[in-house]
Amino acid sequence: MNIFGRIFRISIFGESHGPAIGVTIDGVPAGMPLTVNDFLLDLKRRQSGAKGTTPRVEEDMPEIVSGWVNGHTTGAPLTILFRNSNTRSDDYDSISKTPRPGHADFVAHVKFGGHNDIRGGGHFSGRLTLALVAAGVVAKRMVDPINIKAKLISVGGSCDIEGTIDRALEQGDSVGGIVECRANGIPVGLGEPFFDSVESVISHLAFAVPAIKGIEFGSGFASASMTGSRHNDPILDATGRTATNHAGGVTGGLTNGNELVFRVAVKPTSSIGIPQNTYSMETDRVEELVIKGRHDACIALRMPVIMEAVTAIALADLKLPANL
Amino acid sequence: MNIFGRIFRISIFGESHGPAIGVTIDGVPAGMPLTVNDFLLDLKRRQSGAKGTTPRVEEDMPEIVSGWVNGHTTGAPLTILFRNSNTRSDDYDSISKTPRPGHADFVAHVKFGGHNDIRGGGHFSGRLTLALVAAGVVAKRMVDPINIKAKLISVGGSCDIEGTIDRALEQGDSVGGIVECRANGIPVGLGEPFFDSVESVISHLAFAVPAIKGIEFGSGFASASMTGSRHNDPILDATGRTATNHAGGVTGGLTNGNELVFRVAVKPTSSIGIPQNTYSMETDRVEELVIKGRHDACIALRMPVIMEAVTAIALADLKLPANL
Amino acid sequence: MNIFGRIFRISIFGESHGPAIGVTIDGVPAGMPLTVNDFLLDLKRRQSGAKGTTPRVEEDMPEIVSGWVNGHTTGAPLTILFRNSNTRSDDYDSISKTPRPGHADFVAHVKFGGHNDIRGGGHFSGRLTLALVAAGVVAKRMVDPINIKAKLISVGGSCDIEGTIDRALEQGDSVGGIVECRANGIPVGLGEPFFDSVESVISHLAFAVPAIKGIEFGSGFASASMTGSRHNDPILDATGRTATNHAGGVTGGLTNGNELVFRVAVKPTSSIGIPQNTYSMETDRVEELVIKGRHDACIALRMPVIMEAVTAIALADLKLPANL
Amino acid sequence: MNIFGRIFRISIFGESHGPAIGVTIDGVPAGMPLTVNDFLLDLKRRQSGAKGTTPRVEEDMPEIVSGWVNGHTTGAPLTILFRNSNTRSDDYDSISKTPRPGHADFVAHVKFGGHNDIRGGGHFSGRLTLALVAAGVVAKRMVDPINIKAKLISVGGSCDIEGTIDRALEQGDSVGGIVECRANGIPVGLGEPFFDSVESVISHLAFAVPAIKGIEFGSGFASASMTGSRHNDPILDATGRTATNHAGGVTGGLTNGNELVFRVAVKPTSSIGIPQNTYSMETDRVEELVIKGRHDACIALRMPVIMEAVTAIALADLKLPANL
Asked: In the predicted model, is pLDDT for residue C324 greater than 50?
């Protein structure tokens, strides 16, 4: 489903090369100051243009079409629309017959009986994260003063991020990366057992983002190698502050008042300049595929602001008064 | 919330030392053969008794209290109840004042204003997974002939699982582990974009399980170190079969017909025999805590059947006819 | 689905002649005083025994199996269970072949492929309202000090309720009735546009109750005959008090601070002592059916407490801080 | 909430005088033929212009902004947008201080702390039903060949609909009416017990529509005056056909294969030309209010197509294969 959340409920729509992409947010309180300008910084961070990201530059100018009057929210659903432009659909003509490895071309073709919009990946395009980032801007405002910051901490297994991307670009290849997100100022007790643990809600949103293949909280996979005596975080005072933070700020599925820390694994961009093999529906055999056009060498570069949005949306949806 | 799912909807209730734990499943088709015996194998796999798991042995005998007549389901909600017994509540008297590191004691105390059931961790107890496993048995039946198998692949960073647990037991310590789950026979196209990717739904459920701190699909975190030319899985034929399976059976958030593969990181059991420091609400300072009673040295031992349940429940909820 | 609500979420299960009927409530705040005795008055009001209602008397003793410790709620899901007893299943043996007019026998047979529990109407039995009344008791506590009172205002078109039921009993027939529910002390602004108007949520719940065939708020159907100049309720002061209450306390789908008033139409009990014609699946033709056993002559007698429950549950689910 | 449905899920947004009104539909199958022209007939039926309805004529031209390519749906969310135009906001300047009787002005002011969009009723405007009708067009296509037809059967208590409206117009007053909706060709067994009876889902949607104050199925309120021997519909054959249809096509909350019949009570338009009294927030006392501009004398004239949409949306959401 394209709808997520119980309290802060978002509905996302649009395709890469369709008329528009947008998001409707239900559950925004009335009277919250908000202007189009408030979106621009995060949209810019997500946008293409940085080294290694695709040169397709959309204006990505948000239009607020509902739930907003005179610089503040009204309490009605807030809809933010982005008109698509600068689309070169002819780049994608061959997709219908030769599904690109790593992309949704094949699975979408099967699921939707060949009726899916194939241009630019259609509804499966990473461009949909534009709507997520816009919702994140609103969510960040709602969970203020919680501070959320994400950054790219490694690319292709290396901390020399720039060098690694340069080499991938030279070879027409792409690389994956790891993004770490940290949030401070979260009260104790967010999260709703049994199913809506903080980790559950964040991971649900994170895996909706194309290219995410793993997530871990606190020590994460490293905790599997630890003993309990080392992993347990001793509680130090009445605020719940702990001496270590192996838990990444979440105990029993609830925020524990310490820094929330998680990392996501971003796979390498599926579109590469190097020729690949794939099955051709036309000839019914494996053929060589060369993907035309230029693409992100490292989609992970765009992910920090997206993971901040994921975190803010999750916290906004969970931020009920603890005792209802 | 204690309710999950849209088509196969489960509601979980109960506490470790309360009268009963149970699950109500809405969306089970009518006429499915089912007996109490069908639950016993998976419940046994989850149950305590194995080396390194807590010696508290409940009978864990399911009672089907609704949605079932004469050996088949009726289409009405199926409720499965487990009466608790063999509880030694006095072991837990001190929890109210000295929250155990790694447990939900502190966060639950804050969230519920001190009214939560503290006995055995109450609603936060790993014992709640009993209900999940029961739901998993029903879900496995529903997604048949999909075959789901999970196993523990490492403990404390080692593949010598038995030896590592023995050493932890000797020291009164605990260890974490990694569980891998594989499912075969899944049709192409399960998963509902944007938000309900297969990874989103599985991870949402997986992180509801106490002690899970990370999840990865296919190559997962390793994919962050790869290039696209290596990571992309070449499609070989009209069924979508791929030469490699770095994607772990999921492309664009949808199942791609190849083996579904994911791994979860299980933290070491929080209850250990070694003395630990924690904040005492009674004295308002850090005190030494010794946890009485015996506990699982490696909670990861119980996880394979739980992760199978997670997978089956996710697939049952997503297994709509592709085109609705 | 057998689950309703977003904030105060209830899951209902059970059959008339199965082992138990129950309800799990998610979203009950922690620390609310509650005992088994608190349920008894409303359960008694719903129970059989009054003139014209079925002589089958269940004990209807609630068992609180989760979410409750030492006389207060814990914040975890609250499950209330009612064991069935005093069932005479043999009365219902013929239902499988000769569906009773007015009952769900035929539609349930088709929907569930003949696998539904036919004993006593199974999951379609009015006995399921036991669970609704129990949830209503909890909801009433939560919306306190809102005062909700319902009563039977006519039977068979007459205000001589007792006489009308007597005559129906003499003839082995049944009669319908109208129940009116009024609630006072509701704050202005409950209800969530667009879809979750107060009327929407109340009517959704009311029509889940077997035998309800109509609902109207305020002047209801009579308002269709009015002019605007007469129907409009003039606002008198800053609290929103109106001179008349044709709106029944709801304007624009939101509570307006005046008395909430609605009425439901209850059809006559479908089970009657008079012989009826119905299609026999056995002989493939219309046969005379005589329903054995004794039944409610006027199911509407039970409805006041059920409609109070409906109102309380709706308000509990909507009673968020207005501005979130 | 502005989102409704589980399988056919719609999200509605917009305000009367904001930039646009729209609806996003999640759950539309891929490959369904659909063009802008398909919407025009039903939009026209809803539109103003008929005798007694407001002369404000919007173009109401739908723009499909997502989920659609080359004349067919893609399986991705279908968003339909209507740009507002021809708005005369100055008509509404006084609303902020003198809430109009019968309108949401007062309750919305309280609920949203004065931040709601007051122009034309904002999000509470009947104009929002434009989005509902658009969703209805899609839903009708999905439930084809079910045939749904609604009509206005009385106005102001009279069957002389035209004459009654003429008199109201002359007096600057308004009148209510009753709309009846009938649907044929519905299979047996739609509806999901316990909560999602067909009546529950239809009434939930119907009461989301501004001005609806009552709903009844089949004999409805008249059934409260009947005996069971008269009200029960004898089943005639294996298709479930009944000799009478007092049940209005719904038994036990499920469709029974006979004609679905329901009626809604529509209150008189709240905006009238006759001076009224209301509380003034400015002077803190009751003042005379004269509503400027021209308005529908009988909003019930617009309701038939809206109730068809309600029915189609409800059936589309419930139209799962009976046994899942």
From this structure: no
